[in-house]
Design a protein that fits this description.
Blueprint (H helix, E strand, L loop, with lengths): L11 H12 L5 H19 L12 E2 L11 E9 L3 E10 L2 E10 L2 H4 L3 H20 L8 E6 L3 E5 L2 E4 L16 H12 L6 E5 L1 H10 L5 E7 L3 E8 L15 E5 L17 H8 L8 H6 L1 H17 L20 H9 L2 H10 L7 H33 L3 E7 L1 H5 L3 H12 L4 E6 L6 H19 L1
Parallel strand pairs: 2-5, 5-8, 9-12, 12-13
Antiparallel strand pairs: 1-11, 2-3, 3-4, 6-7, 9-10, 10-11
Helix pairs in contact: 1-12, 2-12, 4-5, 6-15, 7-9, 9-10, 9-12, 10-12, 12-14
Length: 461
């Protein structure tokens, strides 16, 4: 047991150990510029015909060809699948006004690790239950349903897309390389309780962008910093070599970068630490989603834990004692990281008590705080570098970025760190980070409404 005696303040040797560790997480301007330049090359390569099979960023077509103009109206059901909770929503759009109702359904580990019939059968069951609650037992027809499917998908149209790979802890059999819209339609038809005219498929990042654009016409980028991370932006189709419809009336398209996979071809070696490598090796998908593993909420706490363990083994912290609590993977959560970054000493002490360190000192807390800030600052600057890559491609003097995700919303210093980095990387561009309102729900409805509007315009033209 960790001795309940006073620990002396760290000496020069201990301080040097901490300083060396913290230095590993520095991400200076020159390193950022190298990453931005290389990422931009990979963005361009990913947009080429066949490039998504060789580029670490897939640059996926979303088939969303325009932003809302405020005239979108109608009632739309929306589905939101991207984590351990699944939502069904009814979204009412009326000339710029939005009202929503929803119900949340848990996704069990059995379903997350089961098969396609189990997952999509459950989604169909939840949709039917919610629709009957909202529309009555006799109503069967739902019209267009927006389906936010927050996993990498290679789309062939707005209503057809195949899962590339599972992320976020999902590992459902017989879904990868299959059309998820077709799987859901089959499950709905098998239940024979409701009829869906069509399902509009989108990623949560696209939903975030479209939701925010409903009230801000300057939105050109959507970004999520939560359990995972991703970004999308509006690209001119003349720069998209994989677009095979030269007679199409559309001139632009939202591109889903899937930037979480950046680094999967060793692009991040220069900024990766030994702690990142351990987190990656012990993750569900070793060697995959490396950029995401450096900047998203699912992993920051574990990076910090590995740093703490390293200092404990060097007898810099807690006299070399590793508590049973801290020895467990993911026991130091990203919520703890946020608490330490808040600077509240009592909260920090309480966390250490929960982790089995009742005799933790203020000096211990300061070291832990320094680690949490260093890991968070690097994450924010990496995220800002990725965003800078996109914004430089857009070449706009002023632009709004739709933001969502628990890390961005709840971490006490992440926004400030990002703002500071963006001012450093883009000194002549006015970047407005806008918090999106329910991108996965409201955004799905907006996507469906815009698609209908553009389809009517295309027919008229």
């Amino acid at each position: 047991m960790y001795p309940a005696t006073h620990q002396c303040a760290p000496g020069a040797w201990e301080k040097e150990k901490v300083k060396t560790l913290l230095k590993k997480f520095e991400f200076p301007r020159e390193s950022a510029e190298e990453l931005i330049s290389k990422m931009n090359e990979d963005f361009s390569y990913g947009l080429k015909n066949g490039g998504d099979y060789h580029s670490p960023v897939k640059m996926l077509l979303t088939y969303v060809h325009g932003l809302p103009d405020g005239t979108e109206t109608g009632d739309y059901f929306a589905l939101d699948l991207g984590g351990t909770n699944f939502r069904v929503l009814l979204v009412k759009l009326n000339d710029g006004n939005v009202s929503m109702s929803h119900e949340t359904f848990p996704i069990s580990q059995e379903i997350m690790k089961g098969d396609a019939d189990g997952l999509f059968g459950y989604i169909a069951e939840c949709l039917a239950k919610f629709a009957k609650l909202k529309l009555g037992q006799e109503t069967r027809k739902l019209g267009t349903v927006g389906f936010t499917f927050s996993f990498p998908v290679r789309q062939e149209s707005l209503t057809c897309g195949s899962l590339i790979k599972w992320t976020k802890g999902f590992d459902v059999d017989d879904v990868e390389d299959h059309d998820v819209v077709a799987l859901l339609q089959q499950a709905i038809e098998k239940r024979n309780e409701i009829e869906v005219e069509q399902i509009a498929l989108l990623n949560d990042t696209t939903g975030v962008m479209m939701s925010c654009a409903y009230n801000d016409p300057d939105v050109m980028v959507g970004m999520i910093l939560g359990t995972g991370s991703n970004a999308c932006y509006m690209e001119k189709l003349e720069y998209v070599g994989k677009w095979f419809h030269p007679q199409s009336p559309y001139k632009e398209c939202i591109i889903n970068t899937e930037w979480g996979a950046y680094g999967d071809m060793d692009e991040l070696q220069s900024v990766s630490t030994s702690y990142d490598k351990i987190v990656d090796e012990e993750s569900l998908y070793p060697g995959k989603q490396l950029f995401e593993k450096m900047i998203s909420g699912m992993y920051l706490g574990e990076i910090v834990r590995q740093c703490i363990l390293s200092l404990i083994k060097d007898f810099v912290l807690f006299r070399g004692y590793i508590s049973p609590q801290l020895s467990k993977k993911d026991s130091f959560t990203t919520i703890y990281v946020s608490e330490f970054c808040s600077g509240d000493a009592m909260k920090c002490v309480n966390i250490l008590h929960q982790l089995g360190y009742e005799a933790a000192t203020i000096e211990d807390c300061h070291v832990m705080q320094d680690i949490c800030i260093a890991v968070s600052l690097r994450a924010a600057r990496l995220a800002a570098a990725g965003l800078t890559c996109i914004l430089r491609r857009l070449k706009r003097s002023s632009v709004s970025v739709a933001m969502d995700g628990s890390l961005y919303k709840k971490h006490p210093t992440f926004k400030r760190f990002m703002h500071q980095a963006l001012e450093e990387f883009l000194p002549t561009t006015q970047v407005n980070l806008r918090l999106a309102e329910d991108g996965s729900g409201r955004g799905a409805a907006v996507v469906a409404a815009v698609a209908q509007r553009l389809a009517k315009t295309a027919l008229v033209d």
